[in-house]
Structure formats: structure tokens, C-alpha cells
């Protein structure tokens, strides 16, 4: 089992956000740069396959390459960057150091240095193999990629509250060094939102919310063992991010592709987190035309008998989860008056 601070792993395709950002920052690619995928690329005398092999993605733009998570696209960008510049971006994103989170036992990534990086190592690192990082290092890199380009130091808490409910202290560390130009961060948000709208992250799509993300299917060592780590990094709202999250499933059984396994988990996670943060859904015309995606207002159920509360939820096309013993609603989440998607579940505590 992976912990977010102590264990390292090969991130796979979620790491492609770093290669993408570096390529954009160095002016090596634009949204419309053209690439071609034949299913594999021969590098240093070794054939390296796209995940879609023996099929291929064919001709595609950079944006489509990110949507498709096409390995040859990122091998090409890595080759253009070169070992020295690629390693510089690894340092810039902080993969060589601890994130500084206020938890003990934090690990750091393990990476090839430029003088030991041959063509094969560079190609595979560019799409997230041949290096190991911690999940928290990836989340920090994702945050910098989408927040305007600023490095962050993660913390466990946001504020201290005293016994009377007053805020005694707030933890609001200043933004760190700007490691990416603002326009690169803006472009990455756009591209990663398209991954959820049109690419491998479609199962994370939530009507009314703009979500961006990147999926990954990491093959565990030894290669060919049939064991994988499925993951997805996602953030929302895509135009002004409030939350970024990473979901990993170690050695999934049956299906193992990242978007297929972890996309629905992330969808449920964000469906619960975004209303808690006060982010309200905003539906476009297409979403409003689809049955069941119109917004629903959460009714005030506190103090009601359970049967009456469930009837109101049913009339609002909302589901429910009940905790506790009793017949009267003591508390609920989301709070009354929140706008949510029809079909979402309201957590009820009874007494």
C-alpha cells in the first residue's frame, strides 16, 4: 500500500504534465504542434511501445497527444529537451527534495542524473517511467502546473480554532518560487481540462463543474508481471482551481487502466469536495438538455422524521446515505440550500 509521504513509485502518465509544461515553457511545442504515432518508437536500438500498441494514434496535435496520453509524443518532447534541460525541470519541480510537509518520514524521488541519462532513459522518463517519486511530490508538481506556476509547500492544517470556535491562527504560507510562466500554467489548465472532456479522463467528468486531470497506468516492476498502479490526478474548477487531488489504486484486479479504475473514484470525491468548498455547479445548454443533470437544491432536513426526509429527497431526485441510530435527522451534508447535481447522495446523521 502506498502512503503519500513515505513511499515512492513510478508515476507513469500523470508525470506527462511535467514533460508537457517543460516543452511549452521552452517553446518546443504549441497546442497545434503535429506528431505521428505508429504504435512504437525505436530509441537507442530499443523499441519502446505506445500503450496503445499494436494499434496507434496516428497523426495528432500536441493537445490530442495529451488527451490520448500517447507515449511517442512525450518521447519526442523529451528528446527535444535533452537530458540536461529535462533534469533542470525535475529540479525545478522539486523531485530531488522533500516537499516540506509537516509530517515525519518523508521520502524523495530517485532520478537519473544527466551524465547517466542515455536516449532510452530520457525517453522513458519523459512518459513517467525509469524514475520514482512520492505521490505528494506529484501533487505538488500538479499544483504548480495549474496555479500560475508557483511552487507550494503542503501543510496538514489550514487554521487553528479555539474552544469557542474562534480562529486562533491561520496557516497561509506565501507562494513559493515561480517555476513556470503564467501563460504556460494557463495553457496546461486548458489542455488538462480537455483530457477530462474528450480524453482518457472522461469518467471524471461532472455535469456543471469544470474538471481537469491526467490519468496513468503504471506497470510495476518487474515489467510483464501483470501488476499495475492505476491513478488519476485531477483539479477543479479548471478555470480557477480550488482543489487538486490524486487517487491511486495499487494492483487493481480485472480492469487496470487509470481512467477506467480511478476516474469514477475521483468523480465521487470531487462531487463531495466541491460543494463543501462552496463551488456551485454552472451548467451549459447541452448539460441542461440531458435528463438528470439539472441542478437540485438540497432541502433542509434537520429535525424531520427519517421517512419525511427521504420523501423530500426523492422529490428532489437526490439519493441518501444514513449514519447513526434513530429516526430523526440530526445533521446533513451538503448543507441546506446547496446546489448539487440530481442523483447525488445527501449524507444524513440520525439520532
What descriptive keywords fit this protein?
2 domains; 3-stranded mixed beta sheet; alpha+beta; Beta-lactamase; single chain; Trypsin Inhibitor V, Chain A
Structure description:
The chain starts with 15 loop residues before the first helix and ends with a strand. It folds into two domains: 12-156 and 176-276, Beta-lactamase (3-Layer(aba) Sandwich), CATH 3.40.710.10; 293-350, Trypsin Inhibitor V, Chain A (2-Layer Sandwich), CATH 3.30.10. Helix 1 (16-25) packs across helix 3 (71-92). It has 351 residues and is of the alpha+beta class. The model has no long low-confidence stretch (mean pLDDT 93). The protein is globular and about 70 Å long. 41% of the residues are buried. The longest helix has 22 residues, at 71-92. The strands form six sheets. It has a three-stranded antiparallel sheet with strand order 7-8-9, sandwiched between helices. The protein has nine helices and 14 strands. The protein has helices spanning 16-25, 62-68, 71-92, 119-126, 135-146, 182-198, 258-276, 285-289, 306-315; strands at 34-37, 40-43, 46-49, 58-61, 159-161, 167-170, 212-219, 228-236, 243-250, 295-297, 319-323, 329-333, 339-341, 345-350.
Strand order of the largest sheet: 7-8-9
CATH class of the largest domain: Alpha Beta
Largest sheet: 3 strands, antiparallel
Structural class: alpha+beta
Fraction of helical residues = 25-40%
Instruction: Report, as a whole number of angstroms, the end-to-end distance.
Output: 36 Å
**Beta-strand proportion:** 15-25%
Tell me the overall shape. Answer: globular
Helix-strand pattern, N to C? Answer: HEEEEHHHHEEHEEEHHEHEEEE
CATH fold description of the largest domain:
Beta-lactamase
Assigned CATH superfamily of the largest domain = DD-peptidase/beta-lactamase superfamily
Number of strands: 14
Mean pLDDT across every amino acid position: 93
CATH architecture of the largest domain: 3-Layer(aba) Sandwich
Low-confidence stretches: none
Radius of gyration: 22 Å
- Number of self-contained structural domains: 2
Number of helices: 9
Amino acid at each position: 500500500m502506498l502512503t503519500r509521504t513515505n513511499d515512492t513509485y513510478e508515476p507513469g502518465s500523470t508525470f506527462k504534465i511535467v514533460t508537457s509544461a517543460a516543452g511549452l515553457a521552452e517553446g518546443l511545442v504549441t497546442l497545434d504542434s503535429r506528431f505521428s504515432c505508429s504504435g512504437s518508437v525505436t530509441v537507442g536500438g530499443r523499441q519502446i511501445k505506445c500503450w496503445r500498441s499494436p494499434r496507434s494514434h496516428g497523426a495528432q496535435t500536441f493537445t490530442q497527444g495529451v488527451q490520448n496520453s500517447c507515449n511517442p509524443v512525450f518521447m519526442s518532447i523529451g528528446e527535444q529537451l535533452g537530458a540536461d534541460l529535462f533534469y533542470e525541470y525535475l529540479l525545478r519541480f522539486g523531485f530531488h527534495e522533500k516537499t516540506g510537509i509537516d509530517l515525519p518520514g518523508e521520502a524523495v524521488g530517485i532520478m537519473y542524473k544527466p551524465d547517466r541519462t542515455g536516449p532510452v532513459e530520457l525517453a522513458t522518463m519523459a512518459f513517467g517511467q525509469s524514475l520514482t517519486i512520492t505521490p505528494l511530490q506529484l501533487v505538488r508538481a500538479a499544483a504548480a502546473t495549474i496555479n500560475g506556476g508557483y511552487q507550494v509547500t503542503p501543510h496538514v492544517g489550514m487554521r487553528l480554532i479555539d474552544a469557542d470556535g474562534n480562529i486562533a491562527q491561520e496557516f497561509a504560507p506565501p507562494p513559493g518560487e515561480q517555476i513556470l510562466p503564467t501563460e504556460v500554467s494557463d495553457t496546461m489548465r486548458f489542455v488538462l481540462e480537455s483530457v477530462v472532456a474528450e480524453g482518457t479522463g472522461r469518467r471524471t467528468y461532472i455535469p456543471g463543474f469544470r474538471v481537469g486531470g491526467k490519468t496513468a497506468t503504471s506497470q510495476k516492476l518487474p515489467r510483464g508481471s501483470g501488476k499495475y498502479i492505476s491513478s488519476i490526478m485531477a483539479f477543479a474548477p479548471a478555470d480557477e482551481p480550488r482543489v487538486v487531488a490524486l487517487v491511486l489504486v495499487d494492483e487493481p484486479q480485472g480492469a487496470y487502466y487509470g481512467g477506467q479504475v480511478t476516474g469514477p473514484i475521483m468523480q465521487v470525491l470531487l462531487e463531495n469536495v466541491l460543494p463543501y468548498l462552496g463551488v456551485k455547479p454552472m451548467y451549459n445548454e447541452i448539460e441542461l438538455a440531458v435528463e438528470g443533470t439539472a441542478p437540485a437544491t438540497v432541502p433542509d432536513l434537520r429535525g424531520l422524521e427519517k421517512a419525511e426526509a427521504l420523501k423530500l429527497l426523492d422529490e428532489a431526485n437526490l439519493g441518501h446515505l444514513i449514519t447513526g441510530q434513530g429516526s430523526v435527522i440530526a445533521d446533513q451534508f451538503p448543507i441546506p440550500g446547496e446546489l448539487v447535481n440530481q442523483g447525488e447522495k445527501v449524507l444524513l446523521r440520525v439520532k
